[in-house]
Amino acid sequence: MPRKCSVIGCRGNYEARKGEHADVNKVSVFRFPKDECRKEQWLHRIPEELRSSEITDDMIVCKKHFESCFVICDMTCYRPDGSSFTFARGIPVLAPDEVPTLFHNTPSYLSTPLPPKSKAPSDRRAVVAARDDKRLKEWLDSDCITDFDDFSTRVSEKSTDLPNVWIALTKDDLILFVLIINIVSSLVPSIAVSFKVWHDMHVERFDEERQRNSSELAWLSHSGTARVY
Fold it and tell me: Full-prediction pTM beyond 0.70?
C-alpha cells in the first residue's frame, strides 16, 4: 500500500471505506523537502490544525494539496534531429519552489492558492512576438490572391481607397498602377513609380523610365507572382 498523506483529515492512499471503489484514495505523494528552509515553507503553508504535532523526515503530502498546474505528469524528450516526443511520467514530480496550498473539506481561508508567477521580460517579449507573428500570418493568409480575376475584382472594389496620387488602370491582360507627382503644384506632373501586374500574376515595377529588378518585390510576391493586395 502506498504511503499515506500526513495532512490530518486527508484520506490520500488510505484504504477505501465500505462501498467505495478500491482505488478511490490512491494518489501520488511527495516527500517533504530535505532543505530546512523549503521544509519550513511547507510546514508554514499547512494549517496548524492539519499538521501532526510530531514532525519527522518521513512525512509526505499527497497530490491533492498542490495546484494541478504545478504537478508535472509528462516529460518531453528531444531527438538528435531536433524533433521531440512527450510521454507520461511513471511518477509525477513537483515544479521547483512549489508548496502545498489546497486543503479540501476545510474552511476556504485555510487554502491559499499561489498567485500566478510573473514572466521574465524576455519571456513576455517572446509571447508578444509570437502573437504578432500569428496575427500577421492570419492577415496574409486571409488576403491571399488566388488568380488574376480575383485580383482584378479586388482592385475594382478598393480603387476608391487608393490615395488621390495613385491611378489604377485595368486591361484584359494586365493592371497598371501609376503614382503621379506634382499634381497640385506649379511643376509639371510626372509619373514617379508604376507597377504592372500581368495576367500570369507576374509583377513589374518602374521608377520613371527604368524597370527595377523583380527581386526587390519579394516582400509582396512569391516566386515572382503577386501574393497580396
Answer: no
